[in-house]
Amino acid sequence: MPSLTKIERQYSQHANELGWGDPTDWANHRLIKERRQRVEMEDQQFFSNLDDRLMLADADTESPMEQLCRSMFQFDQGWSFHASEQLLYGEPLVHSQGSVGSCVGAGGGLAIAAKASQEILNEGDLEDPVGWSPQDGNNLRDHAMPFTGYHYGAGRCKNLWDGERFVGSISRGDGSYCSVQIWAYKTVGILPCDRVKDRFRGPFPQSSDVRSWGNNRRDELNEHLDIASEFRMSESVVVRSGQDLMNVITVLKQPCHICSGWGFVSAGFDPRYEMTIYRRSGTWYHNMTIYGVFEVKGTWFVIVKNSWGAEAHREIGRGFPAGCFVIPLSLFDSWIPQAECMSIGELTLPKPSPLFG
């Protein structure tokens, strides 16, 4: 049986600290809290209806750039955001959450960058990647992700939001929930790394000061509300099944958060499909990003992107980059009843972009 990589062993030994939920709670308590939050948001009509969105989408029409992205991978049908990232940013993005239990924020940053690449490259929106400016030249990769600390901290402090600003303070261990991050993207926006005010600066986009934004007084968040409000997500849908996921990824072209207590391990290279496939194993109190779904020889698979850096998972084959792994869609159908999954929908980014001028 294939062994875990060094990075996988390191994180698996500290599964309780990965960042999904309150580290003092068991997985079922975290899931209950997550679902209560999601149901409350649904009651407030916070999420878009998937069926309504599918009716508005044209599943049969792809732009020339989308056709090019599809041709870059060796699958029969489906979609992955790695190609649009590679074409726009120069390479698919890989990110490590480091020692901070902020996986929900880290995974959200990756998903936002993926959605931005889809909108700019494939949909032709005259927008900038988050944080990019003409002075950066062709260096788009380092400005593709927003600053994790802002949306991570905003999500953790959702209960301190009075409608205009964050009030009071909070102090607890690392951890957040998928639903409150979705709330943050839509309500208070996302923050480009190059727009963080000088007195709050640290090594970006991920460092120990992310913990400060999630734990300390709300000065950091409130001082950046006017900036982050320029960068918002306008919609999100809830994924409840493998079929939902296929529609969200292949038709709506939206990556997804997924939070759960499930862990995974390589089941080895499968010569039938010419790639490494993962299976369920162990416990990760963790958020990851769903980056694609695809079909090979009549079987559908899901691409899961992690926030443990490029060394966390082996090369999976079929043109997919490091930092992610593949599971069968049938396993996702077993996973989703024990998880919460929500999409990253349309983004409002600065435009018109000098990139296209």
Helix coverage percent: 25-40%
Largest sheet: 7 strands, antiparallel
Low-confidence stretches: none
Q: Give the total of domains.
A: 1
Number of helices: 13
What general form does the structure show? globular
Topology, number of strands: 9
Organism: Allorhodopirellula solitaria
Protein name: Papain family cysteine protease
Outline the structure in words.
By secondary structure, the chain is of the alpha+beta class. It has one domain (1-352): Alpha-Beta Complex (Cathepsin B, Chain A), CATH 3.90.70. It has helices at 6-12, 27-43, 50-56, 64-71, 82-89, 103-122, 148-156, 178-187, 209-215, 219-222, 225-228, 242-250, 329-335, and strands at 77-80, 232-233, 238-239, 256-270, 275-296, 299-305, 324-328, 339-343, 347-348. The mean pLDDT is 85.
In short:
With 357 residues, this protein is an alpha+beta fold. The chain contains 13 helices and nine strands.
Layout of secondary structure:
Layout: H1 6-12, H2 27-43, H3 50-56, H4 64-71, E1 77-80, H5 82-89, H6 103-122, H7 148-156, H8 178-187, H9 209-215, H10 219-222, H11 225-228, E2 232-233, E3 238-239, H12 242-250, E4 256-270, E5 275-296, E6 299-305, E7 324-328, H13 329-335, E8 339-343, E9 347-348
Antiparallel strand pairs: 1-5, 2-9, 3-8, 4-5, 4-8, 5-6, 6-7
